[in-house]
Design a protein that fits this description.
Layout: E1 16-21, E2 32-37, H1 40-50, E3 56-60, E4 77-88, E5 94-110, E6 117-122, H2 139-153, H3 159-164, H4 167-177, H5 182-190, H6 194-219
Parallel strand pairs: 1-3
Antiparallel strand pairs: 1-6, 2-5, 3-4, 4-5, 5-6
Helix pairs in contact: 2-6, 4-6, 5-6
Amino acid sequence: MAAGPFEPRFEDLPASVPVFPLPGVLLLPRGRLPLRIFEPRYLAMTIDALATPERLIAMAQPLDPDGGAKVPTLYTTACAGRIVSFAETDEGHMMLTLQGVARLSLGQEIATTRGYRRFAADWSGFADDLAVTPAALDRPRLVAALKTYFKLQGLSANWEAIDETEEERLITSLAMICPLPPNEKQALLEVPTVTERGNLLIALIEMALLQDKGSDAARH
């Protein structure tokens, strides 16, 4: 698949990126993530990102999301997304959509004067993220587990659309929207390939169902 006219080439990815730390939020290559930005430091981050050719913001999770640290330590594997749309609101907020570009390893933190955090970016090892590659998926097993899991979580789905969605897009969308714990979201980010991500997603959903069944047995 040819890259779009606004998509960066691997060799043009920047040496550093602004980072938005957000626990439990997952961005994956080619996934789309809507965000509401309202804190002054992240409004500044957004304005600065929009002024660059790549328009990139990296999403990263804190290692200890419940620790309450003012400057939390972050997982070193993050995913950068390109701002593909934005709108201002009457309340002074910004509504963004990030489209995932590639994963990266966060290097040394770089001091800034605008309140948000910036890190050196190491893209080596993630060049394949920019290319769409075929993915293998045990779709019947996934859908069977997903129907029970969605019912348990009170979620609805268009099963006909799920049946028609190609493998990578389905794996990416489900990994991003399923309400899994932050550490499991991070594991989904860090697996090397989309096929492995799909296998892990199935395993995590099935494990959640087993845990719920065990909780029901304990209650009875």
